[in-house]
Amino acid sequence: MEALILEPSLYTVKAILILDNDGDRLFAKYYDDTYPSVKEQKAFEKNIFNKTHRTDSEIALLEGLTVVYKSSIDLYFYVIGSSYENEEKCRKASTAGEHGGAVLGCG
């Protein structure tokens, strides 16, 4: 069987999301066209929130994407990468976002 070899890319993060404790969007930045319309994006965000807001883990594989997330009081920080993405890279981006939220007074 042939091994899957991916070309190196700087585009490792597909999206960064901050949702409130009801799963509503506070901030969202998508870096590709995986979910081209706002309707598709919001449906994806609701799906992620529903699958992750009650769990204690920090990594999930949903809809073929690697999702790294953290919660802080009433905010949920999500970093979305491809299914081939290194979770540690996404986790570092998630931690940076969480600290940024604290600096802005959001967490």
Automatic annotation (TrEMBL):
SUPFAM superfamilies in the cross-refs: SNARE-like (SSF64356)
Keyword annotations of the record: Cytoplasm, Cytoplasmic vesicle, ER-Golgi transport, Golgi apparatus, Membrane, Protein transport, Transport
UniProt KW Protein transport keyword: yes
PROSITE patterns: CLAT_ADAPTOR_S
Lineage top rank: taxon: Eukaryota
Mode of membrane association: Peripheral membrane protein
Listed GO biological process terms: intra-Golgi vesicle-mediated transport; intracellular protein transport; retrograde vesicle-mediated transport, Golgi to endoplasmic reticulum
The protein's role, per its UniProt record: The coatomer is a cytosolic protein complex that binds to dilysine motifs and reversibly associates with Golgi non-clathrin-coated vesicles, which further mediate biosynthetic protein transport from the ER, via the Golgi up to the trans Golgi network. Coatomer complex is required for budding from Golgi membranes, and is essential for the retrograde Golgi-to-ER transport of dilysine-tagged proteins. The zeta subunit may be involved in regulating the coat assembly and, hence, the rate of biosynthetic protein transport due to its association-dissociation properties with the coatomer complex.
Protein name, per record: Coatomer subunit zeta
Source organism per UniProt: Pongo abelii (Sumatran orangutan)
